[in-house]
Amino acid sequence: MNEVTVLPHWTLAQAINGLVRHGVPAISVWRERLHELGVAEAARRIAGSGLKVSGICFTGMISSPDVAEAAQAMDDTRRAIEEAATLKSQCLIFLAGAVDARDKDLKATRARVLERLAALIPDLRAAKVKLALEPLHPTACATRSVLSTVKLANDWCDALAAEDVFGVAIDVYTTWWDPEIESEIARAGKRICAFHVSDWLADTQDLRLDRGMMGDGVIDIPALRRAVEAAGYTGLIEVEIFSARNWWKRDADEVVQVVKQRFQSAV
Fold it and tell me: Where do the domains of the chain lie?
């Protein structure tokens, strides 16, 4: 369970206790809540709970053309790498950052991100952390990420040539539309280090904050699961639902119960 699914109602401490109570085996930690509790205390509580850490969300946003802004983002990314190491997270989710209105140069923005990713290789290797490059839907290119397809994530991994520290996160919500998704999942193969599920509602009203519960939308989630498993992925399947108009308004225990039911019927 990605903590964001119950973010409005549970602190990290409450989420740890709640997921254990419901028999959920792993948590993906939201950095906002991590900092509220403190990294050392969070690591202690998670270790004591028996939960695995499937991921930490998120780091990156290193696309700025401004040198000072970029340096600040890189520093924060290095802090996130240390946090992931402390929590023994299976990966650290990376969002590239958006194209900037000050230069409007998408090609240059992507080149900057790739260059800065290469500069993180020594930090990732020292911490023994895998950075999961997560493509977002193209509509996020102007706000959150210029990494828009699994093909581009694979291309970046090829260029970085550091398979020990870079992987790919497949989120069904942001990739289901892609006509090359199955071939690029197969190409990613063992690079896949995270698989996130939710659903795309036919009447989506907010592209980021109106995700559906699995089974309520139009994504063929089982087909994408079969594709990532055929590619060699054997890891955890993470439920990540941003839902301002529905699930965030419900009691967190109810949400977890429904997630468990839908995981069995729709994933």
Answer: 3-266
CATH number of the 3-266 domain: 3.20.20.150
Give the tens place of pLDDT for each residue, 62-71.
999 999 999 9
N- to C-terminal Cα distance for the chain? 14
Spatial distance between the Cα atoms of 172 and 38, rounded to a whole number of angstroms:
31
Task: List phi, psi (to 5°) of 116.
Answer: -75, -35
Q: Which residues contact 264 (CB under 8 A, 6 or more apart)?
A: none
| Residue 182: Cβ within 10 Å count | 17
* DSSP secondary structure string for all residues of 75-144: HHHHHHHHHHHHTT-S-EEEE-BPPPTTT--HHHHHHHHHHHHHHTHHHHHHHT--EEE----GGGTTTT
β-sheet bridge partners, residue 226: none
Q: How far apart are CA 17 and CA 32, in angstroms?
A: 18
Six-digit token string for 246: 């529905």
Please, are residues 127 and 87 in contact by the beta-carbon 8 Å criterion? no
pLDDT at residue 262, as a whole number: 98
Chain centroid offset of residue 172 CA: 11
- Condensed to tens digits (0 to 9), the pLDDT of residues 149-194 reads 999 999 999 999 999 999 999 999 999 999 999 999 999 999 999 9
pTM of this prediction? 0.97
**33, 18 contact by CB (below 8 A):** no
Q: Return d(Cα 181, Cα 137) in angstroms, integer.
A: 12
> Distance between CA 234 and CA 154 in Å, rounded?
19
Going by C-alpha positions, the residue among 150, 61, 131 that lies closest to residue 91 is: 131
